[in-house]
Amino acid sequence: MSIADIKKNTQAKMDQSIAAFKNNLSKIRTGRASPALLDTIHVEYYGNMVPLSQVANVALIDARTISVQPWERSMAAKVEKAIRESDLGLNPASMGDLIRVPMPPMSEERRKEMTKIVRSEGENAKIAVRNLRRDANEAVKKLVKDKEASEDDQKRSEADIQKLTDKHIAEIDALVSSKEQEVMAV
């Protein structure tokens, strides 16, 4: 494996870390409704636990209401129960075969709690990026030790890997700050 391969792999893995972080952020509840909020909910369907999106159509009615329409009428009660029992603090209301999930307004205390969760997720993403930097630097050091690369190449590649790390950490910081603003907006 060459230094270029190590850099390319590190770049790809750091991009994956950012994508996973964005996915985690989408599941953090703000004052607004988002269908992604219900992605973590699983429903019993013929003896198996399946994601809600596989047994129902999830859409937005307005900025504060999610609609869930089960594909089978018999699933409505199970879907409603799964949403109610989730740790999201939602209270679904059944209207025939359509389930409306209104987003309750968040208290100031709950908003502050959510910003702490956002910061924690951001810190976890930064740790993942830093671990990737360490792994890449160790791989380069191994190449130098095995005499497949020079020490000058090592210094250059470590500087490049650090720039890559700084870029990804700055992106994580930007995502955290925008999500905090979104959570604190009333």
From TrEMBL:
Q: Which family does it belong to?
A: Belongs to the RRF family.
Where on the tree of life does the source sit, at the highest rank? Bacteria
> Mind telling me which InterPro entries this protein's record contains?
Ribosome_recyc_fac, Ribosome_recyc_fac_dom, RRF_sf
* Coiled-coil boundaries: 129-167
Designated name of the protein: Ribosome-recycling factor
What molecular functions are annotated in GO for this chain?
Answer: ribosomal large subunit binding
Q: Name one GO biological process term.
A: cytoplasmic translational termination
Alphabetical GO CC annotations of the entry are: cytosol
**Domain named Ribosome recycling factor: which ranges?**
21-184
**Lineage, please?**
Bacteria, Pseudomonadati, Pseudomonadota, Betaproteobacteria, Burkholderiales
Matching SUPFAM superfamilies = Ribosome recycling factor, RRF
State its location(s).
Cytoplasm
A Pfam family cross-referenced in the UniProt record is RRF
Main subcellular localisation:
cytoplasm
Q: Which PANTHER family match?
A: MITOCHONDRIAL RIBOSOME RECYCLING FACTOR PSEUDO 1, RIBOSOME RECYCLING FACTOR
The record's keywords, sorted A to Z, are: Coiled coil, Cytoplasm, Protein biosynthesis
Q: What does this protein do?
A: Responsible for the release of ribosomes from messenger RNA at the termination of protein biosynthesis. May increase the efficiency of translation by recycling ribosomes from one round of translation to another.
